[in-house]
């Protein structure tokens, strides 16, 4: 069954506490991205873990293999559930980072977080991708990066719903597909490009659905949450 992850795209820990309190036991999984982590640091993670919530720390590490592996090792002590890197960092970077993270967690007797890779940001469409200089289309490149990610030993990818079914068909049921750009029927598109509704994402094989502003900026957050959870019941 697919799982909802609420993106805490905010800078203030008090705002985070308000959201978590509002959603209470209805939401178990939260995403902490650059905005919140750079503002509040480990305090945000510690608060969520103290509330018995699962945490996806979405920092999208992208650098040379040694730097990324050391970055992940530094983050491993936070006891988060999912960490991520950019797949475009390459096979060697992903493989070395994954092996280094696991080795460190084994030695320190820490729970090993899932490590996933970002394929192509959901704000980028085919036209934008060509402007960057790539010749292939987004869908084929996402699949190429997903295959590379699995070969490197990682647990899954971040990809849009438009590629989710293709990834599932090629890489199997146990490979995580975390899908941002989820816009329920009542929400605005905002700055996302490759988007879909919760029901579409689930039908296409997404294992985790990331929803942010459609929930956290809603006038009636609980009503918005109920509508999203209802859309996920297929």
Oligomeric category: single chain
Q: Tell me the major beta sheet.
A: 8 strands, parallel, barrel
The helix/strand series, from N terminus to C terminus, equals EHEHHEHEHEHHEHEHEHH
CATH class: Alpha Beta
Stated plainly, the CATH topology is called TIM Barrel
CATH level-4 homologous superfamily: Aldolase class I
State the secondary-structure class.
alpha/beta
CA-atom Rg in angstroms: 17 Å
How much helicity do the residues have?
40-55%
The fraction of residues assigned to DSSP E strands is 15-25%
DSSP E strands, number: 8
Report the end-to-end length measured between terminal Cα atoms. Answer: 10 Å
Overall mean confidence score, pLDDT:
94
Morphology call: globular
CATH architecture assignment: Alpha-Beta Barrel
Q: Supply the number of structural domains.
A: 1
Side-by-side strand order of the widest sheet: 1-2-3-4-5-6-7-8
Counting DSSP H or I runs of 4 or more residues, the number of helices is 11
Give the low-confidence spans: none
């Amino acid at each position: 069954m697919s799982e909802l992850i609420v993106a805490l795209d905010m800078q203030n820990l008090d705002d985070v506490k308000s959201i978590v309190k509002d959603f209470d036991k209805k939401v178990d999984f939260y995403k902490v991205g650059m905005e919140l982590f750079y503002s509040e640091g480990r305090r945000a993670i510690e608060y969520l873990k103290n509330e018995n919530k699962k945490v996806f720390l979405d920092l999208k590490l992208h650098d040379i293999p040694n730097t990324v592996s050391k970055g992940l090792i530094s983050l491993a002590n936070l006891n988060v559930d999912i960490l991520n890197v950019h797949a475009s960092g390459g096979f060697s970077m992903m493989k070395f980072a994954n092996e280094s993270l696991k080795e460190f967690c084994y030695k320190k007797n820490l729970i090993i977080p899932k490590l996933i890779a970002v394929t192509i940001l959901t704000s980028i469409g085919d036209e934008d991708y060509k402007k960057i200089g790539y010749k292939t289309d987004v869908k084929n490149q996402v699949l190429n990066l997903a295959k590379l990610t699995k070969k490197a030993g990682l647990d899954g990818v971040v990809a849009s719903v438009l590629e989710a079914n293709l990834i599932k068909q090629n890489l199997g049921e146990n490979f995580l597909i975390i899908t941002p750009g989820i816009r329920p029927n009542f929400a605005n598109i905002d700055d996302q490009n490759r988007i879909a509704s919760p029901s579409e994402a689930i039908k296409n094989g997404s294992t985790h659905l990331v929803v942010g502003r459609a929930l956290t900026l809603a006038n009636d957050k609980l009503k918005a949450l109920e509508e999203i959870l209802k859309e996920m019941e297929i």
